[in-house]
Design brief:
- The chain has helices spanning 16-26, 42-59, 75-87, 100-110, 122-129, 152-156, 193-206, 224-235, 251-258, 269-274, 297-307, 380-386, 425-432, 470-478; strands at residues 31-34, 39-41, 66-70, 90-93, 114-118, 135-139, 173-179, 187-192, 214-217, 239-242, 262-265, 289-292, 310-317, 322-326, 337-338, 342-347, 360-366, 387-388, 391-400, 406-411, 415-418, 421-424, 438-447, 453-461, 489-493, 517-518.
- The protein is α/β, with parallel strands linked by helices.
- The strands form six sheets. A nine-stranded mixed beta sheet has the order 2-1-10-9-11-12-13-14-15, with helices on both faces.
- The chain is globular.
């Protein structure tokens, strides 16, 4: 699919509310989304969004109002996303798995005036919101609950389906998305209307998504990957197949039922699908492309071979409108080249471009205004640290070959130093995940008895492993990686703490060296 379009992809006259109005007018009967229980056309979507938008306005939400949204993955969440866009409110998407200090940080830092939440999250929210001046709009209230005239159902049933009066612009701040990062509290990435549309455009390019495509839609809407797909479905007539969550065992059945043509992957999604038992559904589906980030070479080739699905790898972050680098050329192992509206470089510690083949940090600058975040909400220090002289320093490592293709090498902060050698956790994990007994792994640096950094590997084993020997595992590693890369400490876990996008939360893994097997003991 040709992605190199003339510069100036984004009109200042365009915006998300306008896209929805135009879709409802031009293609009212096109199916925007479907789930097991309902189907929405563009016309019905626009009508229901307007009812909800007017209901929220009646409750006091308006342009510039910050509204925290803690909803699960269902069609009502999509309605809320578009309704808040239509009235100009700034949404603060909340990871539904947050609780305690992490949840409190997002809410107290963003200071929303409203919270829209599924009732099932009330236990996590209650101890925090009772100390805040915030109005909660509950979805899923039990019958007869107090304040029933101020719940989600009440707002959604507002009698007027008229278009809200808010005059939207592509420069409007649409959301503050809190990203977890590797250190420190979550930072609030400010996302404009233009950034959402850029994110949707980049995804459509990398996935070769075209009119008539059907996307298996499991991505949480509170994540940029989920919200950008909602916008993409207004930029061209595609259909979203809503499922409540990603299920490795149920995916191919869902894909066949909805006749899905595309799968988005992050983290270990491809690996999890490959670990499922062979099935007649492996080739009995309509899926053409799996697009996303996090496909090691061996997984990439195995996935394409087994399922007959093209893998499209890319790279990006919320701060750069999701994808900043995409691979549409089939170069296995590469994240590709920069999208047209960004310049991407690999630089050394002094900000100088490194030669082809050398490892450095990825930095990004915008070629079209407004496609990169204006900064972190209420965090000028972190903004100044990350964005310098028009360049956003990602903290990620890569190299670039003679033909301009980038190759991702992991997080700069996830690079460990052992015995004078730099160790990429990403590289070690890729090798370890190829062990016949291992389903998933995570490597961290720990302080050994000498005060130096050493390597500790966490292993989740496959369900059918009869026995596992750490000693044999280390011998296996020694045959496949440099000596300084071989983990010293080994621990087997039942599961990993993960983000909703299936990334291991390494900060929650034990730093101790007395709770695991030690190869030097």
């Amino acid at each position: 699919m040709e992605r190199h379009l003339p510069m100036n992809h984004f009109s200042t006259d365009d915006n998300i509310p306008k896209l929805l109005r135009d879709c409802a007018k031009r293609s009212p009967e096109h199916v925007f989304c479907r789930s097991d229980t309902e189907t929405l056309t563009y016309a019905t979507l626009n009508e229901r969004v307007n009812h909800l938008a007017n209901g929220l306005s009646r409750m006091g939400a308006a342009a510039g109002t910050r509204v925290a949204v803690m909803l699960a993955h269902h069609i009502d969440h999509a309605l809320a996303f578009f309704a808040l866009c239509k009235i100009g409110a700034v949404q603060v998407p909340i990871n539904v798995h947050l609780k305690g200090a992490g949840l409190e940080h997002v809410l107290t830092h963003s200071e929303p005036e409203f919270v829209i939440a599924d009732r099932c999250y009330s236990d996590a929210l209650a101890p925090i919101i009772e100390r805040m001046r915030v109005r909660v709009i509950w979805r899923g209230d039990v019958e007869g609950a107090a304040d029933s005239d101020g719940n989600f159902a009440c707002a959604a049933s507002h009698p007027s389906a008229a278009e809200p009066a808010f005059d939207a612009s592509d420069a409007d701040l649409r959301a503050i998305l809190y990203t977890s990062g590797t250190t420190g509290p979550a930072k609030g990435v400010q996302m404009t209307d233009r950034m959402y549309r850029a994110a949707a455009l980049g995804s459509s390019w990398i996935g070769s998504i075209e009119p008539g495509s059907v996307l298996h839609f499991w991505d949480p809407i509170y994540h940029v990957f989920g919200s950008e797909v909602l916008v993409m479905a207004l930029m061209q007539p595609i259909t979203l197949a809503f499922v409540p969550r990603f299920s490795a065992s149920g995916f191919w059945g869902e894909a066949k039922k909805f006749q899905a043509t595309h799968l988005h992957f992050v983290g270990g999604v491809l690996q999890l699908l490959l670990k499922q038992p062979p099935s007649d559904l492996d080739r009995c589906h309509a899926v053409k492309v799996a697009w996303g980030g996090g496909a090691p070479v061996d997984v990439w080739r195995a996935f394409e071979s087994r399922f007959g699905v093209l893998v499209r790898e890319g790279y990006g972050m919320t701060e750069t409108s999701s994808f900043s680098v995409i691979n549409v050329d089939g170069r296995v192992g590469s994240i590709g080249k920069a999208v047209d509206y960004f310049t991407v470089e690999v630089v050394d510690e002094g900000g100088r471009c490194v030669p082809p083949g050398a490892i450095g940090e990825i930095r990004v600058s915008q070629r079209e205004p407004g496609t990169m975040t204006p900064g972190y909400y209420r965090n000028p220090e972190k903004t100044a640290e990350v964005i310098r002289d028009g360049w956003l320093y990602t903290g990620d490592l890569a190299r670039q070959d003679d033909e301009g293709f980038f190759y991702f090498l992991g997080r700069k902060k996830d690079s460990l130093r052992r015995r004078g050698e730099n160790v990429s956790a990403w590289e070690v994990e890729n090798v370890v995940n190829g062990h016949p007994c291992v389903e998933e792994s995570a490597l961290i640096g720990v302080q050994n008895e000498f005060g130096d950094e050493d390597l500790k590997i966490f292993l989740k084993l496959k369900a059918d492993v009869p026995a596992f020997s750490p000693d044999e595992f280390v011998s296996w590693c020694q045959a496949r990686m440099a000596k300084f890369q071989v983990p010293r400490f080994v621990v087997v876990v039942d599961d990993f703490p993960k983000t909703p996008t299936q990334r291991v939360q390494k900060t929650m893994l034990s730093q101790r060296i007395d709770d695991c097997w030690d190869s030097e003991a």
